[in-house]
Amino acid sequence: MAVDERAERFLKACRGEPVDRTPIWIMRQAGRYLPEYRELRLRHAFMDVARDPSLIADVTLMPLRRFDLDAAILFSDITVPLAGIGIDFTIEENQGPVIQEPIRTAEQVERLRPFEPERDLPWVLEGIRRTRDRLEGRVPLIGFAGAPFTLASYVVEGRGKKDFRATKELMYSQPAVWHALMDRLAETVARFLRSQAEAGAQALQMFDSWVGQLSPEDYDSFVAPHSARVFRELQGAGVPLIHFGTDSAMLLESMARAGGDLIGVDWRIPLDQAWSRIGPGRGIQGNLDPCVLFASPELIREKAHAILRRAGGRPGHVFNLGHGILPGTPIESVTALIEAVHEFRADTQPGWL
Asked: One of 6, 33, 132, 154 is an active-site residue; which one?
């Protein structure tokens, strides 16, 4: 296989162009399932890695040394822009982000400062530049950010929660404060993503990890305008835009209207059904259950090929898990998945769905 085919496969799929085989990358592909990452974390705290451009590049490239992936994704965290606007937080092991002072009043929102990427996150942008240099064009680099709602859910709750009571209470009881906060976060996310593209990221993904907690009506009222603003402000950035949500099957039409060249879906809806609801003119990313990677290579192959048959050879499909790869995932399972995706040829497969 020519080097340029691998280098272009992911980007061509994002643009809806035909590809020689379906591209695959994996959310959290540089993470705790890799022994070399776990060894590095024995010596460095998470945020120490995320603030060091050389270590950002090292970790981003780790999975590329093991696997025939079609894209790299920058090593970082969705919460990193928060410090730039004046929200203090820590990353707690096995807990995730913990906000020191949750934002729940108009006065707190008013105190948030404007986000300036080069001032607030120079190490992320330098990490992108160093990673691009070290990739030498072998595969594209994906940058990312958290969506306004998912960031808001962290800063209002103070940490990840299951019921999102404080978040919804603010939405329902103080809608003006809610929209002011979301407006600040949308501006921050748009600036951060654009700065990543300017630094060299070749595609961008916006993660709305907690959006599945909302009804379609609440999404349309409280979230969609702000997500749409992000995508509107990224028009002209010159890179594909991926809009990902978890447990979001009931929101697909609304998410598609909000924006994105590709819509990411999880395993809770068959891929072909999701694609038909997203509508023409957009690609789709997904959607294997991460737990399948704890199964046998034979079952991994069967499940992957079932998803690819549902894609039916249509241009615009990027294979991925429906969420991030889980700690403890066997390395050989990742290899089996990538091989299963790359070996599949839609035009030779019987029984298209």
From this structure: 154
Topology of the domain comprising 3-348: TIM Barrel (3.20.20)
Confidence (pLDDT) at 46: 92
Question: Comparing C-alpha atoms, which of 86, 85, 64 is closest to residue 75?
Answer: 64
3-class state of residue 191 by DSSP: helix
DSSP state of 321: B
Annotated catalytic residue 37: no
Catalytic residue among 15, 20, 37, 41: 41
pLDDT tens, 307-353? 999 999 999 999 999 999 999 999 999 999 999 999 998 555 543 33
Report the SS3 class of residue 116.
Answer: coil
Name the active-site residue from 6, 21, 33, 77. Answer: 77
Given a cut of 80, whether residue 38 has pLDDT beyond it is yes
Catalytic, 4? Answer: no
What residues form DSSP beta bridges with 263? 243, 284
- Name which of 350, 344, 285, 283 is nearest 320 in CA terms: 285
Question: In three state form, how does the secondary structure of 283-310 look?
Answer: EEECCECHHHHHCCHHHHHHHHHHHHHH
Which of 55, 280, 247 lies closest to 162, judged by CA? 247
- CA dist 273 and 277 (Å) reads 6
User: Domain spans of the chain?
Assistant: 3-348
pLDDT at res. 122: 97
Query: In this predicted structure, what is the pLDDT of residue 159?
Result: 80
- Element (DSSP H or E) covering residue 334: helix 331-343
